[in-house]
């Protein structure tokens, strides 16, 4: 017997490490080619389904595609080796290193040198490589999501939760995600409750911001690597196919043999899964790729890779501008460029689905056309970049195109950081989380990992799906309903960029976002039909269900259940119906959840999070408040290029940026002349519509080149004023008015405003007033809702 084992081992060792990569590469390349040709064929035959649209949106591109292909090469090479050799006889770790180099996986994990990269102290790289000089890949694009809790794969390594429908978890079978969606999340448009505090801009800005932070690509293949199965034509689970079964009794259950919604697994990271185990190492749990950077750098405008960033720029003119549409304008204002691949790009041929005779628009993020409200935000921020670049060029005619581009991009990144922390997050995570985790900037810490957490991308930051209205309003200049441009049902606004071009431009859509309320997420009216029953439905094909997709994605990524995350956040962990009823403040909902899941521990974390009553001052419950606040705390503290980090901007520039406003960006880049001061709050007596002339402009004089002596004097004076402001801010803890609101002394403000009288440019003329006063503060709007009575609908505020 020993002799036999030795012979087998000898044979195994004689198999060259490179004997299978070529076969694996051929297998993967053929699957990719088949998938691409099949997708194009469906477009040409006008039989594109909602699943095809989702798959197109989730396709990796550029460096992301290279990373995914390398992972597929590696995985299939190891699978072929595994099929030939019993796992008892494992190859050496040296062979694993050889295969990593052959398949391209090794290049995905090697740290690049930061010594040769220019201007690292001045500008971000497109991919955020070298943001952290000690760990260059930390927070960069095409790196793994981080894990705050270990993954819980069915097999401990790579199989999704629920891969085996008969496997029990905590002694209970998991419910089908579509069944959960039907029983818990379904509502009708007639049951929608509008938010009385916040606008639809809160919802869309959240989506816009998410597209700056997270993108999880699918595998490009629609065919199983192991058996050639087409994922669209079968309900069998076979990598990368992870279909959603449709339960008996579902009104959408088809009559055919296969009764499921096709879904594809997220692409794996190189070297994760069973790879190391087959080579004598320790099994490395499967991880997923974040194709975007972890930073608030407006990557959805500029791209998260060098190649894409260059493609989005106008390199034919010396102005640092982004490319714009050469065929159409919006009343003379710029529109996003069309895709140059009109005949081969499925996105560009959506005209066959929507009767559009024009190509799709193509900024850096493939999700730009997901809905026309999102398209309008992309368009507005593209215009703002070009406006900044032109203004900087006017002030600094000697600056070259690269400097103009980078400086405008840098300002745009600061905008995002200011808006998210000052204007957006307080409405979401509530008062307690803002004060405990997201207060005053603590400074950069190279030891903080800013990488986006898997649970944040897969669950917590998908909370706003419940705040989506079933229609997109397009009011007139007076914010009244417009008979010429009536509201568009959301399901008719998916992938219809032609509406922006031919139906009034972006102005009506922006007015609709700032002038109409968000949907209020209530426990009895969670998800509108437009995204639960009609997602991406253009033809008579089965539409997608966003709730089911969210939960299936969480299971694919092996995200632990509800109680594990409540424990992580220091919250109670309910174990029975009575305790769950207390947490949810809703006995009926608790009963429904336990009928499906058996135990609170098994509840999908996305569902558990969105079902919780709101925290005080927020629009999420305690669990998601904790997770979202923790993520943004890490993003800020782990970003070397954060706008408040000394040296990133000058003191005078930081002072200007603190008073940037979304309302001013709307005024500067649309034809809208009246806006609410706070675009996230509904128009009211305390948040009136005001003319754009009363919204402070962001002066760029702090970016004007001056002599070294003048710059030093300005910097010294600004440092003095900055210290004075910090002292005054500290006094806010003890100075309160009769309503217990902070009363800030005005001396520093007067001092700063007086600076314009002593700061002069090189021609000794009075410099522009670079200080922009903050928007007028508004008193607190009366809180919406009240503590819910036993079993009643709605969320609590305290």
UniProtKB/TrEMBL annotation:
Give the GO cellular component terms, alphabetically: extracellular space
Asked if the keyword Signal belongs to this entry, the reply reads yes
What cofactor does this one take? heme b
Region (Disordered) residue spans = 748-798
Q: Does Signal appear among the keywords?
A: yes
Question: InterPro entries from the entry?
Answer: Haem_peroxidase_animal, Haem_peroxidase_sf, Haem_peroxidase_sf_animal
Q: Which GO terms describe its molecular function?
A: heme binding; metal ion binding; peroxidase activity
Gene Ontology BP terms: response to oxidative stress
Instruction: List the keywords (alphabetical).
Output: Coiled coil, Disulfide bond, Heme, Iron, Metal-binding, Oxidoreductase, Signal
Origin: domain of life? Eukaryota
What SUPFAM superfamilies is this protein classified in? Answer: Heme-dependent peroxidases (SSF48113)
One Pfam match, given by its short name, reads An_peroxidase
| Family, as annotated | Belongs to the peroxidase family. XPO subfamily.
- Matches recorded under PANTHER family: EOSINOPHIL PEROXIDASE (PTHR11475:SF63), OXIDASE/PEROXIDASE (PTHR11475)
Listed name of the protein: Myeloid-specific peroxidase
Please tell me the species this chain comes from.
Muraenolepis orangiensis
């Amino acid at each position: 017997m020993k002799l036999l084992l030795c012979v087998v081992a000898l044979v195994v060792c004689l198999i060259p490490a490179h004997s299978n990569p070529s076969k694996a590469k051929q297998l993967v390349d053929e699957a990719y080619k088949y998938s691409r040709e099949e997708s194009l064929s469906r477009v040409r035959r006008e039989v594109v389904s909602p699943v095809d649209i989702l798959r197109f949106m989730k396709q990796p591109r550029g460096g992301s595609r290279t990373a995914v292909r390398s992972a597929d090469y590696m995985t299939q090479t190891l699978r072929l080796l595994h099929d030939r050799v019993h796992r008892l006889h494992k190859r050496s770790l040296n062979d694993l290193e050889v295969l990593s180099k052959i398949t391209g996986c090794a290049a995905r994990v090697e740290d690049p040198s930061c010594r040769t990269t220019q201007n690292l102290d001045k500008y971000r790289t497109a991919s955020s490589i070298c943001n952290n000089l000690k760990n260059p890949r930390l927070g960069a694009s095409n790196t793994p999501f981080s894990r705050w809790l270990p993954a819980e794969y069915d097999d401990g390594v790579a199989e999704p939760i629920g891969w085996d429908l008969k496997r029990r978890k905590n002694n209970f079978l998991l419910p089908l995600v579509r069944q959960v969606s039907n029983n818990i999340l379904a509502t009708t448009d007639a049951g929608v409750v509008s938010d009385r505090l916040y606008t639809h801009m809160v919802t869309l800005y959240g989506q816009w911001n998410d597209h700056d932070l997270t993108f999880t690509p699918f595998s490009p293949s629609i065919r199983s690597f192991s058996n050639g199965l087409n994922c669209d034509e079968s309900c069998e689970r076979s990598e990368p196919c992870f279909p959603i079964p449709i339960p008996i009794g579902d009104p959408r259950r088809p009559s055919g043999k296969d009764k499921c919604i096709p879904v594809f697994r997220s692409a794996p990271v190189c070297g994760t899964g069973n790879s190391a185990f087959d080579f004598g190492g320790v099994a490395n749990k499967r991880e997923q790729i974040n194709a975007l950077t972890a930073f608030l750098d407006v990557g959805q405008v500029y791209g998260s890779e060098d190649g894409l960033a260059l493609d989005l720029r106008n390199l034919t003119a010396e102005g640092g501008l982004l490319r714009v549409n050469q065929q159409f304008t919006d009343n003379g204002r710029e529109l996003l460029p069309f895709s140059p691949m009109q005949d081969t790009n499925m996105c560009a041929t959506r005209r066959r689905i929507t009767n559009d005779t024009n190509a799709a628009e193509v900024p850096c993020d493939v999700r730009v056309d997901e809905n026309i409200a999102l398209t309008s935000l992309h368009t507005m921020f593209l215009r703002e970049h070009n406006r900044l670049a032109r203004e900087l060029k006017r002030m600094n005619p000697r600056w070259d195109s690269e400097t103009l581009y980078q400086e405008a991009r840098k300002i745009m990144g600061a905008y995002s950081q200011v808006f998210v922390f000052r204007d957006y997050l307080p409405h979401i995570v509530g008062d307690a989380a803002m004060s405990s985790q997201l207060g005053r900037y603590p400074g950069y810490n190279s030891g903080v990992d800013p990488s986006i957490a898997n649970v944040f991308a897969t669950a917590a930051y998908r909370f706003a799906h419940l705040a989506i209205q079933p229609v997109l309003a397009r009011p007139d200049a007076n914010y009244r309903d417009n008979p010429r441009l009536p509201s568009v049902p959301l399901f008719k606004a998916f992938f219809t960029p032609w509406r922006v071009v031919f139906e009034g431009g972006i102005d009506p859509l922006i007015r609709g976002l700032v002038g109409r309320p968000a949907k209020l997420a209530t426990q009895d009216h969670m998800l509108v039909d437009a995204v639960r029953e009609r997602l991406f439905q253009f033809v008579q094909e089965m539409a997608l269900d966003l709730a089911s997709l969210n939960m299936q994605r969480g299971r694919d990524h092996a995200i632990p259940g509800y109680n594990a995350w409540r424990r992580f956040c220091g919250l109670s962990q309910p174990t029975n119906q009575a305790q769950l009823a207390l947490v949810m403040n809703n006995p009926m909902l608790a009963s429904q959840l336990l009928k499906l899941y058996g135990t609170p521990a098994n509840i999908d974390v996305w569902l558990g999070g969105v079902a919780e009553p709101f925290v005080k001052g927020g629009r999420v419950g305690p669990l998601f408040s904790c997770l979202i606040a923790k993520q943004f705390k890490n993003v800020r503290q782990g970003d070397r290029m954060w706008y408040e980090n000394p040296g990133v901007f000058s003191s005078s520039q930081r002072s200007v940026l603190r008073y940037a406003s979304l309302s001013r960006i709307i005024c500067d880049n649309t034809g809208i002349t009246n806006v609410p001061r706070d675009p996230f709050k509904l128009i009211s007596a305390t948040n009136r519509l005001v003319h754009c002339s009363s919204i402070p402009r962001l002066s760029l004089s702090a970016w004007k080149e001056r002599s070294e002596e003048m710059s030093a004097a300005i910097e010294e004076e600004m440092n003095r004023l900055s210290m004075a402001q910090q002292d005054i801010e500290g006094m806010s803890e003890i100075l309160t008015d009769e309503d217990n609101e902070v009363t800030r002394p005005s001396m520093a403000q007067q001092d700063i405003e007086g600076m314009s009288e002593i700061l002069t440019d090189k021609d000794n003329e009075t410099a522009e007033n670079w200080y922009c006063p903050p928007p007028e503060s508004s008193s607190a709007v009366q809180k919406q809702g009240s503590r819910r009575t036993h079993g009643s609908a709605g969320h609590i505020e305290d």
